[in-house]
Amino acid sequence: MKVIIGLGNPGKKYEDTRHNAGFMAIDKISEKWGISVQQNKFRALVGEGRIEGEKVLLVKPQTYMNLSGESVAEILKFYKLIPDELVVIFDDLDMPTGQLRLREKGSAGGHNGIKSMIQHLGTQDFKRIKVGIGRPEPGRSVSDYVLQSFPAGEKADINEAVSLAADAAGMWTREPFVKVMNHYNSLKQ
Can you tell me the distance from the alpha carbon of 127 to that of 178, in angstroms, rounded to the nearest whole number? Predict the structure, then answer.
């Protein structure tokens, strides 16, 4: 089984915020492949199904962003999986809104959700699909910025990036991640 995790914050208040790009991608995957993500277990909303014949678990941790690793660690332990069998989709401040970048591993880069995952999984070696959300103007609070909704002028870009992230996760169910990474990182966005 492969685990596809989208990071975000639970609740209506955070639904369309920049920090919830990972949740948006899971919703897109759910819609595209008809996998309901409504089951509440492991302190997450989860849904089991198949993509391209591969059994998958879609996950939206409900622990709030900064504690995402707690939920993910519970899932890996329960299913006896290793970090190599998961991919995480999340927002990235260091890329323009709508840009996508895939990585096989790396540091947290200041992202608290990834920091929590590294802490609870005990490794930085897990696949990532990063969705660019842009940076706030100088002097503006990063925490306020990531908890804001996308302005109308950025909605098309973020919707396209979320769709591409969903497609990349789907491709990973049938192709090695290196091939997926090479394909999506080479796209002009």
Answer: 10
Task: Tell me how far apart the alpha carbons of residues 112 and 106 are, in angstroms, rounded to a whole number.
Answer: 14
Encoded amino acid at 104, one letter:
E
What contacts 106, CB < 8 A, 6 or more positions away? 124, 128
Contact 33, 163 (CB under 8 A): no
CB 45 within 8 A of CB 165: no
107: which 2 tokens?
């540091």
Per-residue pLDDT reduced to its tens digit, 154-163: 999 999 999 9
Active-site residue among 19, 111, 120, 183?
Answer: 19
Edge to edge, what strands does the sheet with 100-103 contain? 39-41, 44-51, 54-61, 2-6, 86-92, 127-132, 100-103
Say how far apart CA 8 and CA 58 lie, in whole Å. 13
Is residue 19 among the annotated active site residues?
yes
pLDDT tens, position by position, 62-91: 999 999 999 999 999 999 999 999 999 999
Task: Assign residue 43 a region (left: φ > 0; alpha: ψ between -120 and 50; beta: otherwise).
Answer: left
